[in-house]
Specification:
alpha/beta, four-stranded antiparallel sheet, about 45% helix, binds adenosine-5'-triphosphate, membrane, ATP binding
């Protein structure tokens, strides 16, 4: 059943049509990947799906509710969280504090309670701390709680960003190149993490250049080229599509994807 439904989505910058009439039907609990060459419009699309960019045209419905035109906090409140291609962690905070910032949507605390530092506030903070610890463990960062973010290696920061986004308890998690800059072992860890998050019921929209990762985790792959749909379907079908091989994967990438598929057959 479709959870996130997009139709006719478009965004231009000057004369450039970065996203040009995109339709998406993203099923509840699925991993829906968006791939395409550099400059295809993937990040622009994610920016519209998270309210960072306002679309020029089109509709973005989450469970039937129209979100297009709402600000980013409206998308967040509706249940769409995201990570960024360039890390957006707070480097002057610890890992735990970073994750706690992601929980603010779920914290109910009046200004009076905050000023008076009531017991209710203390309870809310303790609950938030506990949930953040559990999330750090879930993304493989147990033991890093009190480490300042600026002392963490890049691979750990990528997972920290995912933990912070998950702290908002989103219905849809948008991941913009979660494996960028990671080595093969770290990329496999992200692969397993994505599969665990999806298995727990969070719908995932993944933008990623690492084709091995995309082929492994995706239920559905959408190929964007020059802002438009080039192809979409099951990972194996997309990897075999000659238009995709030519525009994006290249002969080498197509062969790798097909080998991957054969190994999992
Ligand atoms: N804020 C902006 N102002 C002007 N042009 C933009 C803006 N954002 C994106 N673009 C342009 O829109 C096009 C699509 O960019 P986008 O970053 O979405 O591509 P992409 O598919 O994510 O590429 P990559 O894989 O390299 O990250 C590019 O030509 C880019 O220069």
């Amino acid at each position: 059943m479709t959870l996130l439904s997009v139709s006719g989505l478009a965004k231009s910058f000057g004369g450039l049509r970065a996203v040009d009439g995109v339709d998406l039907a993203i099923s509840r609990g699925s991993v829906h990947s968006i791939i395409g060459p550099n400059g295809a419009g993937k990040t622009c699309l994610i920016n519209m799906l998270s309210g960072v960019y306002r679309p020029d045209a089109g509709s973005i419905k989450l469970d039937g509710r129209e979100l297009a035109g709402e600000p980013a906090h409206g998308f967040a409140a509706a249940g769409i969280a995201r990570t960024f291609q360039n890390l957006q962690v707070f480097f002057n905070m610890t890992a735990l504090e970073n994750v706690m910032t992601g929980r603010h949507l779920h914290e109910r605390c009046s200004l009076a309670a905050a000023l008076l530092r009531t017991r209710a506030l203390a309870r809310a903070e303790a609950a938030s701390r506990k949930a953040a610890r559990e999330l750090l463990r879930a993304v493989g960062l147990a033991g890093w709680e009190d480490t300042p973010a600026d002392a963490m290696p890049y691979g750990a920061l990528k997972r920290l960003e995912i933990a912070r986004a998950l702290a908002a308890e989103p219905r849809v998690l948008l991941l913009d190149e979660p494996a960028a800059g990671l080595n093969a072992t770290e990329a496999r860890e992200i692969d397993e993490l994505i599969q665990r998050v999806a298995a727990a019921g969070t719908t995932i929209v993944l933008v990623e250049h690492n084709m091995a990762l995309v082929m492994e985790v995706s239920d559905h792959v959408f190929v964007l080229d020059h802002g438009r749909k080039l192809a979409e379907g099951a990972p194996g079908d997309v990897a075999r599509d000659p238009r995709v091989v030519e525009a994006y994967l290249g002969a080498e990438g197509g062969a790798a994807a097909q080998q991957q598929e054969a190994e999992h057959a």
